[in-house]
Structure formats: structure tokens, C-alpha cells
Amino acid sequence: MSETRNVSYSFLGPAGTFTEAALAQVPEARGKAWRAVNNVGEALADVVSGRSVAAMIAIENSVDGGVSATQDALASVPNLRIIGEYLVPVNFVLVARPGTTLADVRVVNAHPVAYAQCRSWLEATLPHHGHIPASSNVTAASSLLDGDQADAAIAPPGIDKRYNLAVLATGIGDNPNAVTRFVLVSRRAAVPARTGADKTSVIVELPEDRPGSLLDMLEQFATRGVNLSLIQSRPIGDAMGRYRFVIDADGHIQDERVADALLGLRRFSPKVLFLGSYPRADKRPIEFTSHYDDDVFIGARAWLKDLIGDDPSGT
Amino acid sequence: MSETRNVSYSFLGPAGTFTEAALAQVPEARGKAWRAVNNVGEALADVVSGRSVAAMIAIENSVDGGVSATQDALASVPNLRIIGEYLVPVNFVLVARPGTTLADVRVVNAHPVAYAQCRSWLEATLPHHGHIPASSNVTAASSLLDGDQADAAIAPPGIDKRYNLAVLATGIGDNPNAVTRFVLVSRRAAVPARTGADKTSVIVELPEDRPGSLLDMLEQFATRGVNLSLIQSRPIGDAMGRYRFVIDADGHIQDERVADALLGLRRFSPKVLFLGSYPRADKRPIEFTSHYDDDVFIGARAWLKDLIGDDPSGT
Amino acid sequence: MSETRNVSYSFLGPAGTFTEAALAQVPEARGKAWRAVNNVGEALADVVSGRSVAAMIAIENSVDGGVSATQDALASVPNLRIIGEYLVPVNFVLVARPGTTLADVRVVNAHPVAYAQCRSWLEATLPHHGHIPASSNVTAASSLLDGDQADAAIAPPGIDKRYNLAVLATGIGDNPNAVTRFVLVSRRAAVPARTGADKTSVIVELPEDRPGSLLDMLEQFATRGVNLSLIQSRPIGDAMGRYRFVIDADGHIQDERVADALLGLRRFSPKVLFLGSYPRADKRPIEFTSHYDDDVFIGARAWLKDLIGDDPSGT
Amino acid sequence: MSETRNVSYSFLGPAGTFTEAALAQVPEARGKAWRAVNNVGEALADVVSGRSVAAMIAIENSVDGGVSATQDALASVPNLRIIGEYLVPVNFVLVARPGTTLADVRVVNAHPVAYAQCRSWLEATLPHHGHIPASSNVTAASSLLDGDQADAAIAPPGIDKRYNLAVLATGIGDNPNAVTRFVLVSRRAAVPARTGADKTSVIVELPEDRPGSLLDMLEQFATRGVNLSLIQSRPIGDAMGRYRFVIDADGHIQDERVADALLGLRRFSPKVLFLGSYPRADKRPIEFTSHYDDDVFIGARAWLKDLIGDDPSGT
């Protein structure tokens, strides 16, 4: 029983956030304790300390881009591993205290990312509104009930089931296909088994002393036929103009071509952080040309071993 | 005289922000009207409408990275031009209502970027604090006087000269060399003259139908000896996995190698947005090997013209 | 009438060689004087001096490779231009003085290239033969009649119509599809008109001071979508390990992508020799992706010109 | 004793050739039988059959380039290995029957490569001479005594000690630094030990179905920091435009970076023929940046193994 008590999952709360919706997609998390935390740092600290077995954190939004706080936290907290990827469609409603009408709305409370994603609708519908930033989409809504200065809030659909709020408008996101990508992060552990529809995430620093080193880095993938689905620069932070790159590559570390690309990266870069290989949320099998099949790599190694191992008494 | 009335400059207010400090570096702006606006969109709208001749906006922070809102706004508002670059050292103080002590601080109001840059100090000094996000560094401080829930705020040095606030701690930024990069944006106009220490900014979309297209794009610069000081991906927003790249290249559009790289980009990419060529803030002359000197480009063109123009009556 | 007397064409003789067969494919050469010369140097000297309007010379054989003497001569004699390309199927017969039988043959006279192309047949049929090298395929045959040491000669089909020789065997070439590629060379003149099925030949030296410079050179073509049909290294001759490259590229100097690749080459290389753009012998239209169409290049230039030409009084 | 009788070395004869001078540089060949053969095919056949333990063959000349016959023979005869490299300075004298003067010379007998290397001197000194090709430099000279049609011959210095001939001119080669590179070829056997100043030779075919495949092939070397000292195309022979590449790379198959490049080549190419790793004739240690040191490769493999081997019970 004590075992079970330890098995909790952390997520950016409060209840009702998109992050919670992502966690709801994890079969292993069902029936376990879910810890709502306030930020990515807390979520990862829970994992590092063993308070939670894993944490669900947002890593990229199809409209707003990479979540810098997550990317930077993953780059700085050692011994973490991404073990799963989850997609949550993102849409928004405008809510207000009961009795408020659209015409009454002058100030809107919203998490900055949510605000950015509804900007067109807001500019068209409420051209003179002001904005108060909130720390989460749910907080934006709930603080309306605390009597804050805002007249309305941008919140996830369904918020009105949890709080006594009226929905003024639905589907106010500028992009109806918006989606947020979440990753489930645990302490360093066995890499999840290869499924054929996998993704490998790394964070790579470029060597300082070589011009064209980004090109050289990308060639480590290209010469092994490994496609990249994400490449994002983040400042290392010590000086303007020095970057690390957050990279998602198609395939699994147990795929020969990915393993070989990682070897190339490691030789090339002063710092490569392996964040994990894990099944893709979209379960789409990785496509690659047969030149880069495992067999080709294994055959080449056997060929080389045979050449090096030649001895004079042989054929 | 009516002319002079129109010459105003917009910046992200209120007075006292780092953006205002950047604008103070612009000789042409001295003695002109300065308009404090609430966000990047407003600043650029002022420029587009002609309300202001130019707007100062933050584009990158050495610790926090690219300013997404700025990058996305520049990608979507047509006919803008970056005409100057300015660097402002970034440091922070913790301020509170007079009488408050460090030991009293439970909730800190701060702009998210400022908050991120002081995280280590906060976690060490105030391990149990909460965070309320503000829309600007100055607003964070000034709202303390409006009696908001926060006990303290992160603000720029000198804030206590403007508001009746006590400084609880100085130099609380995690990186003493932190700097923010600002750009001055005008309507499309003549490109500023080449100084030899210039930067050229573009936003480039990758063609969809070619794998390895990021590599191909970077080669457009590499084969002309043009170094990049910034490359940052931003989602195009129509689907997960589709990116545009914000790029700062060394040199000026009137440098032959830069012009030729732009030609290559334009042929390669379905969409290239030229944001401008302008003097670098650090005034450091561009270094490049003599293989890529203007003379080499001009000589090659003369050679080619001579070859194509051959006629049978010639020698 | 004096004009007509000057219009002669040089070729590697004597009459009956494959080179003469190549010249027979040139409509302009019909009814003109044909000068049989002894080597490539003489042929080019005829062109340089004006003794002939053009010379037909072998440049590559599908079995034996590039003709070094031709490649080196083109690299060293200035102001020449390739104006046409011709293919001649290459096959061989074994001839002897009348009365000789295969069983009598101990020594075979043959031009070294012809000898190399018949080696398998010779080794199977005449395992103990010796070889005397000849300066041309026809000379090999004709010298049999001068009573030289050889018992048989390798010669082009049809040789027995010209000389009193018996054919001992036909079709003795090892590769029934063997073909030799010839080029027609004139003094520097107008580039032949673009046909859409053209080839451009250059000789390029690599810069000494850059490792990986062959890769860089090839990228000048690759980044413009220009395919290469031939790349052959030849020693520059001043030191072991220093090479120039003989290159045939798909397309015509008046194709924008080819012209731009030539510009790139010229900027990159200490020495680029343009040998000409001319219709391909096989008349196969050049294939290239629409990214590299002339329109794309022209559009990009117009775009750049517009950007550079911005002036403050404009929109 | 029977053992010793078998230990012979083959070389392109007759005695006095540059090939014999190369063989004289091989310590192991001293005091053993030397077999003079007529061509490269015979030399390699001796090795394959076991008649000789090794054969010395010319592979490249600093003026005339790669020796096609050698390159093609190495590509087609299986189970051979290059085990050593030797350089022989190449210079020439003009010899004639005693009593002949320079003014008498009308026809010159010379091996075509030797003839090519003396062309400038001949054209300046004997502008109206004719040329008879010989099968070796020594044969050219010796056949003068057989009363052939030639008046003089191009031969290696020292020929007058062996034959009753008069030297008409010395140092007639156009390039005083001309050198020929020879390789010693044995049957497949243990690779010679790594010396730090080694060369690795391979013959590589390009995949047919990929444009830009030469570029891709070169990147296999470039991404591992392996420099090439020779790259030469040879027709595969089945169709015009299909080539294999003869490549000399700096380093030894037991160098990690070279082994990894060979793996990359083998995965990429439909056919890679490893010709051997052997000490360079010039004994110049290979230079490469420390990024490509063995330790870097070994360290990267250990890192990868550790990542893949993670198990849940671990740290």
C-alpha cells in the first residue's frame, strides 16, 4: 500500500487546465494521485525528488511555438527523461461573471499564450479592451470570482462546469486547429521500447570555434537520413549570440540511423543532452528510405569488422 | 511646425521601462514626442498608421531568448523596416511599499521575462514565494501602490526615483551580463546607409516539399560566406511542425555577398520577408574572408557578361 | 572563293578513324576541306592559327574514360570553345595481311585505347599474344602493309574497304555498347544558341587554402539545381596532389541557374576556364525542378532591386 | 628452400624502368627474385596466382595523372591489397644510336606518358619530329638498336649504362619535380600496422538513384574530418555517364574517423572496394583536428551505450 501512495503525477494546475487534459490521456496515471503545481520548475522538482513518478508539461504550441520555460528547464535539470508525448486540441471560450454582457467587457484576464491565440477575435470584437495576464488559463477564470479588475477571462471549454461563470463566446481562438504538445517526464530510466513511430529529443550546444557549425550539426542527421520535426534555438544565457538547440528527430535511439546520428552529434558538440526516445503522439510510423535501414548499418559493421580483422593466414 | 508635431516615437511603456532606455539612445528621437503604448501590436500600429515615425520594441534577451510577440508581429505586419539596433543592460531590483521587509514578502509581482531572469535569486532568498505576472516591469512596481495582492515587485533600477517605493534588494538578476536587444522599426523606407558594421534581418519560410530544406536554406548563406548571428524558429501557426525562421545575418543588403544570399533565399523559399539592413548596436565591423569581397562578386559578373556577350565578329 | 579555301576542319587522322566518323556528323563540315592531323595538339594549333575553323577531338570513351591529352590541351590552350558534341559507337575488327589466320597471330598492333577495349577477347582468343602500340586505329592497320613486326591489327569496321587486309574477327570489343564522345572545338566565338538540351563545360582549379574545397565547389552547382554529367580530376602538374577538375554540367550559360553557378564558381576558384555551352549529342532535354526555372531567378532579381532601390519618398 | 624460390616480386619491365626503381625501395624485396612483366594485368595475375608475393605498379603521375589501366585493374581483380606506396622522381634523357646528332632526329620513340611529359622540350627543340609509341621507356631505347624507324628515344637516366646508346640531351622533362607514385600490391592479407602517417585507398560506386550523390559521398569523409588526397573518376564501362571513384583518404582503417567514414561509405554506396591502408611514401604524419581524435569516437560510443543500456533499476 505504501508503494501506491508514492505513485503520483504532477501537472501544471489548477484542475481544468489543458495540462490536466493531457495527463488524462496517460493510462498508467489513471487512479493515481495527481499533484497540481504552479510552474514547470515545481513539476520537475517533484520528479527529481521522487515526490511524483512523472510530470506532464507543455513543450510546444502550434500557434505560439516552443514553451521556453520548459525547454530551459529540461536543459538545466539533469537526469530527466521524456517518456511520452501527448497532443491536446486547444480552444477557448470567453467567460464572465453572470450578468456581464460582451458590451460590458473592457478588461480581459488571460494567460499570455491564450491571449496571443485569441488576439484576432479580441481585436475584431473588443477593439478597445485591456489585458491582465494570468498565470494559468483556469486562474484567469477563477480570479474573476475574486473580484479582480477584469470583466472577462479567456478559459478552456468546460470551465463553466467548474465555476459559476457565464460563457460569452465560444471558439474564440484564431486557429481552429491549434494544438498543444505535452511531454511526460520521469527520472532517468529505461528508454521506452521502440514502436516504429518514435521521436527522439536532444538538446545540443554548438562548438564555439567553428563557423558554419549549425550546418555541420544538421548534417549529422541528414547524412544518416534522420528527419527533424523540431529545431528551436534557445540562448545559453552567458552571452548574446550563444545558443543551444532543442531538437526532435524522427526515430528511436535503438534505430541504427538515430544511434549513429547521436554518435556524430556527441563527437561534434561540446554538450549533447539526450532527453529520451518515446512513442509519437500521432502514432504515425517513421518514414525513411531503405538506404538507412537497420540492416544496412549492421551489414556495414560486419563488412568493416571483416576488413580490420584480416589476418595473413586467412583466405 | 506642424511637421514637428507629427514626429513621435512609440515605445512599450510606461515611462521607466528598459524600452524607454533604448529609445533614449536614438539621437533623432531627442526632443520629439514619445508615445508609451501597451504592447508590440500597438507600437507597430502606430508606425503603420503614421501616428509615429518609428517604434522601439524588444526583440531578444540574452537570457530569455527571442521575444515571440515581436517576431510574430514583424512576420505578419507588412511594409515595416528595422532601421536601428540598441542594447540595454538588464538588471533588476526588488521593491516594496515602504515599511515592508524581505521577510514579509510572500507574493512577487513581475513581468514573466523579468521573473525568469531572477528565478535563482528568488528561489534562494524567498523559497516559498508566489508569482503574479505583470504586463511590464514598471507596471509590476506601480501596481504595488494600487494595493494589489503582491508584497513586492521586480523592477528596473531607478524605479524608486519615480514611485514611492523602497528597494529591498539590488542586482537580483541571475546573470550580471544580461542584456536586451531592441530594434527601432519604421515604415518601409530607404535602407540605412552601409557602415561596414551592419546586420540584415529576414524572416524565411521553408518550402514544404523538400526534406533537408533547413540545411539547404543555411547553405544559401554559407556558400556566400555570410555568418548568422541569430536563427530562431517560430511556428507558422497553420499546423504543428511548420516553421518560419527569424534570421539575423552579418552584413548589409548592399554588400554583394548579402545581396546574393538574399537572391538565393528568395529563389529557394516560398516566402522571404526582408526586415531591413541597419547598423549593429555593438558597431563591431563585419569580418569575412576576402573570397567574399564585393570586388570578387563584381569581377565574376564582369567575367560572365563577357562570356555571354561573345559575338562571332569578335577576337 | 578565297573564303571557301580557308574553311577546313581538322581531325585526328588518317581517314577512316572514329574521329572522321564524328566529323561526318557535322552538317556545316560537308563539302569543306578536312585536314587529317597526327595529334590533339596539332588539331588545336590548326584552330588557334586559323588554318581550320574547327577541330574534332575525342574527349571521353565510355569504357576507357576521359582522354587525358584532350583534357589537358583544352586546359592549357586559351581562347578555345567547344561548339558541338558527337557520339560514335565504337567497335573493332581484327585484321591481318591476306593469308594470315588467327592461329598465326602472335603480335597485335593497336592503339592503346583500342587495345584496352578488346583485352578480354584477346586474352581469351590469343592468350600468348604481344602488343605493339600504334598512334591511331587506322595506322595500326596500315602499318601491317609496311611489313612491321605485327601479325594483326585492331581497326575500325570498314578498314578492309580502304586497305588490302583480311578481317580475321569482327565485334571483338569487350563492350558492345561502347561509345566515344567527341567535341568540335573552334576559336572563341559566340556561344551556340540555347536549345534546351545543352551542356556546359568548364575546367576549375580548387583554391589551395581551404580543406573540403571540392565539396564547396560541388555545392556551387547543387545549390542552383544544376546536375553534373562528368567530373574528372586532372593533375595541375606542378606538384603531386594538386588537381583541376573537368566538368560537364547540364544546361546552357544562358540558363539562369547555370549562369549563377558559373558566377559562384568564379568567385570560389582561383581559375575557371569556360569551355563552352553547346547542344548535347543525345538531344535529351535538360530536366530540372521548377525551383530553378529562369523565371525564379529573374523574379528574385526584381525583388532584390526593389528592396535596394527603396527611397524615403516612396510608399 | 622451396619457400624462398616462391618469393618473387613482379614489376613492369624490362630492367631499368622507373617501376624497377620503385621496387628497389622495398626492403623486403632485396635479395628476392624480381619478375619483369609486360603490363599491369600480368603483374596482378602473378599476385593472384601466387607466382609473386607482390607486384609493384604505377598508379599516378604528378604530370600525367592517374594510370587508368592500374585503376581499372584494381577495380576488377578481387582480393588484392595495397601494402605500400613509393615515389620515384621522373626525369628523362634523349638517347640515340652513337653517331646521331640532335639535328638528325626526325622520329622519336617514346612511351606515351613519357612523350607527354617531354612535349614542351620536344616542340621547342625538334618542332618537326614524329612520334612512335613504345610499350615502356626502356623498350623505346632498346628498340633503337633493333634498327627501328626511330632516330631517338626518350628513356630514363642511366639507360646508357645498359645499352650502347649516346645521350643527346638530359633533363628534357617539362616539369623538373615530376614524380610517379607506385603501389605495392599483394593478395588480401593483414592490414599493415598503423603508423600515424597512413593512407587508405578505396574504389566507390555512386548510387544511381540519387542526384547530388557525389556530394553526399564526399560528406561521408568531411563529417568525420577525413581529408582526401586523391579523387579520380573512372567509367564503370556499362554506359556513358556512369562512374566509379578512386579515392585516397588520409589515415588508416584503424583510425576511428576513417573506420567510421568507411561505414558511412558502405551504407551509402552500392559497391565499396577497400584497397588497403598502408604507410604513406612521404611519411608525413596525418593532420586532423582534435574533434576527430580516436578518444572522441570511443567516448561517444561509451556515452551511447550507457544511454541505450539504461534500466529502471539504475540510478
From TrEMBL, chains A, B, C, D:
Keywords: Amino-acid biosynthesis, Aromatic amino acid biosynthesis, Lyase, Phenylalanine biosynthesis. Its EC number is 4.2.1.51. Signal peptide: none annotated. Residues 8-187 form the Prephenate dehydratase domain. The lineage of its organism: Bacteria, Bacillati, Actinomycetota, Actinomycetes, Micrococcales. GO terms for cellular component: cytoplasm. GO terms for molecular function: prephenate dehydratase activity. The gene is pheA. It comes from the Bacteria. The keyword Metal-binding does not apply. It comes from Cryobacterium fucosi. This is Prephenate dehydratase. The keyword Lyase applies.
